[in-house]
Design goal:
heterodimer, A: alpha/beta, 6-stranded parallel β-sheet, B: 387 residues, alpha/beta, 3-stranded antiparallel β-sheet, 17 helices, 40% helix, elongated
Chain lengths: 319, 387
């Protein structure tokens, strides 16, 4: 899906990070005229042609424009090689990590998530921390970068505005960590569960009959709805207080829930979520997501680009 | 922007309030709209068990304070006719309205887009619901983990060869929704400035989460070549300390092997990219070397050898690095006192005040925005409109 909210905005993109290139893609999808130079460092990677095509979609070649751009979108690595980029009237410059000068585009998100405190809390206790997967740290940073671009355009700003991927991820991690810390739970790895069930109720990923499902509740009402929907009345009777569950009985409640979950398929759980708003959901695999465009009732979102199904711009606009 | 943006923030929990918080830090006049009977549940986040605080408990959550600093707060009973009428009068004076209720809530209250646009044709209204206002997920009621599970994100987090365990600790969905919300809001504001037209943006949490999974979706369609890069996390000497590095070609493997003094037994890049077992062998090679070193020393050695590496920081360590403290801001809250907050990744143009006490600015805001005097406000209070 494309929209025209940024029609008339001209952007010169000189990207050396996936985040920068994704920000440019988003701006183009919102109607900006984006002239981009392809990510030179990855040009010889045949295995990345689909990814580079995705990131470059909707952009024009980075030839000199007849009129100066309203905005130059670049990053620390690229600007270090081409400092003249920073002479433009309005620049948004991305810094993924403090190691930008030595890292490469494929390294950025993983290093940023590790530097931001995000990775340390994902994984099993006693085992190595897990990174944010599949360039999601880069893409999430790209959305923030595109937002900064839109903000400085709306404000009529000038000058160089720097956006830090590590700072963005750290701010997001810190928001959640604060809640854990203040609940006396702490921010740590606890496998498929959020630590201490995140303050109330079992909260995490659980096995079901044919895969994995996610459960999350925030109140007694949520807890009763979920347990009732799963047929786990014994769990309600034994543990009516979700605060006590979180504090003292998470393992026991899991043990009560798991046999009930084992009787439900992911499809059962999807129906509970979609029709009744119960706070359970199947943990979709990428293969499931690729099938979403064919599911009845799926609203327009996915696009087909160069033969691949890709996510579109996640906003529908009405006037 | 020629004048300060006026924003009505009907958001609650995380994603909606974060959009309002970003707007406030960028200089907007953001008014948080709650009601005494149905206030933002995040006022209780992290203080659920602090019943000793009594009525002050809803003013004591640092999680709430982070997401709502820089805003003013009013109470408005949207279930009352007078409350909805008053909101529409405020809409007429606003530039932006943000909400993240369950899909259809504003419509059911008679405050759908058609009504909002009638009140203010220039308004930018932003809805951040779990599954969008239409389509198969419109009835979804969700916190972050539900949307990220449906989007496929949680299935990507796990150890090789084992079932996924997800990343519920980090909670990627709310930041994703908020980041797209900020992008859409400013783009729509720019459009409104240019064209004079308002917009209604309907964002779905599931779609926003999928919106950052483009590379994962592509990989699922083109996985014959294996992974484009391999992340390796290895232990260091001190308890629960780790480093992370990334290799993405044979030259990277060679540099890593040289740095850790490994000879034979190091798998080639072609094996590493295609075979999880080869990646694990490489990780164990690195672990054998790093486990005798402190993380800072190991990272320094690797980087000196041209291998990109960082320590895996705890959140406490991450938030105290110079990069993170550079733009931090100190705010004094009337109940909880002084607190320091990290800089906003979107930047800051205004020094934020504290998060609002519930309804603390009702009279002042209604005076400024609508010119209501003390008598009118007293009457509205009497009628239960400002409850």
């Amino acid at each position: 899906m494309t929209v025209d909210l940024l029609a008339g905005v001209r952007v010169t993109e000189a990207a050396g990070t996936l985040a920068t290139a994704f920000a440019g893609r988003l701006l183009a999808a919102m109607g900006a005229e984006v002239h981009a130079t392809p990510l030179a460092e990855l040009a010889d990677r045949d295995d990345l042609s689909a990814l580079l095509g995705y990131l470059g979609h909707g952009k024009k070649p980075g030839d000199p424009q007849p009129d100066p751009a309203d905005l130059v979108l670049t990053d620390v690595r690229t600007a270090a090689r081409s400092p003249e980029l920073l002479n433009a009237a309005l620049v948004v410059r991305v810094r993924m990590t403090e190691q930008d000068e030595t890292a490469g585009p494929l390294d950025d998100g993983i290093l940023a998530a590790a530097s931001a405190g995000a990775s340390w809390a994902m994984g099993e206790p006693g085992r190595y921390p897990l990174p944010m997967p599949a360039f999601t740290a880069d893409m999430l940073t790209g959305v923030v970068v595109a937002g900064v671009c839109a903000a400085v355009v709306a404000a009529g700003d000038s000058g160089v505005h720097e956006v830090s991927g590590t700072a963005a991820l750290c701010a997001f991690a810190d928001q959640n960590a604060t809640s854990y810390r203040l609940s006396g739970i702490g921010w740590r790895r606890e496998g498929r569960r959020a630590p201490g069930s995140a303050g109330v109720y079992p909260y995490g990923v659980y096995p079901c009959k044919d895969g994995q499902v996610a459960l999350i509740g925030r109140s007694t009402k949520d807890w009763v709805e979920i347990a009732t929907a799963l047929g786990a009345h014994d769990a309600i009777e034994a543990y009516p207080d979700p605060f006590a569950i979180a504090a003292h009985h998470a393992d026991e409640v899991d043990a009560l829930l798991l046999p009930h979950l084992a009787r439900h398929t992911r499809a059962d759980v999807a129906e509970l979520a979609e029709t009744s708003g119960v706070l359970v959901a199947p943990v979709a695999e990428m293969a499931d997501v690729l099938g979403y465009p064919d599911v009845p009732g799926q609203r327009p979102f996915f696009a087909k680009e160069a033969g691949f199904v890709v996510p579109g711009l996640p906003m529908q606009v009405r006037r | 922007m020629s004048r300060r943006l006026r924003v009505l923030d009907l958001g609650w929990i995380w994603a909606g309030p974060l959009v309002g918080s970003v707007l406030a830090e960028l200089g907007a006049d953001v008014v948080k709209v709650e009601s005494a009977g149905r206030f933002d549940p995040y006022r209780m986040r992290g203080v659920e068990r602090r019943k000793d605080l009594g009525e002050l408990r809803k003013e004591a959550s640092p999680s709430f304070h982070k997401l709502n600093k820089g805003k003013r707060g009013i109470t408005l009973n949207l279930r009352a006719d007078g409350g909805r009428e008053l909101l529409l009068r405020m809409v007429a004076e606003a530039d932006v309205l943000i909400e993240n209720f369950r899909a259809g809530t504003l419509e059911r209250l008679g405050l759908g887009w058609d009504r909002l646009r009638e009140a203010n044709p220039h308004l930018v209204a932003v809805s951040l619901s779990a599954g969008g206002q239409a389509g198969r997920w419109r009835n979804l009621r969700a916190y972050a983990l539900i949307t990220s599970a449906l989007a496929g994100y949680e299935s990507l987090i796990g150890y090789p060869g084992e079932p996924p365990i997800g990343g519920s600790t980090f909670g990627a969905a709310d930041p994703s929704v908020a980041a797209f919300g900020v992008l859409g809001t400013f783009a729509a504001v720019a459009d409104a400035q240019r064209t004079g037209r308002g917009s209604y943006l309907d964002l779905s949490g599931v779609e926003c989460m999928m919106g950052v999974l483009g590379p994962a979706l592509l990989a699922a369609q083109t996985d014959s070549a294996g992974v484009p890069c391999a992340d390796l996390t290895a232990p260091c000497t001190d308890d629960d300390t780790w480093l992370t590095t990334v290799v993405s070609d044979q030259a990277g493997i060679d540099r890593l092997a040289a740095a850790v003094g490994a000879g034979s037994g190091v798998p080639a890049w072609e094996q590493v990219r295609r075979d999880p077992a080869a990646r694990e062998r490489l990780r164990l090679v690195l672990s054998g070397w790093s486990s005798t070193r402190r993380s800072a020393d190991a990272v320094a050695e690797l980087r000196a050898a041209g291998v990109p590496a960082v320590p895996v920081l705890t959140i406490e360590a991450a938030t105290t690095t110079p990069a993170m403290t550079r733009d931090q801001v100190t705010v004094t809250h009337p109940v909880t006192g002084v607190a320091t907050y990290l800089g906003s990744p979107w930047g800051r143009r205004a020094s934020p005040g504290p998060a609002p006490l519930l309804g603390a600015n009702t009279a002042e805001v209604l005076d400024e925005w609508l010119g209501l005097g003390a008598d009118e406000i007293a009457a509205l209070t009497e009628q239960g409109v400002l409850a």
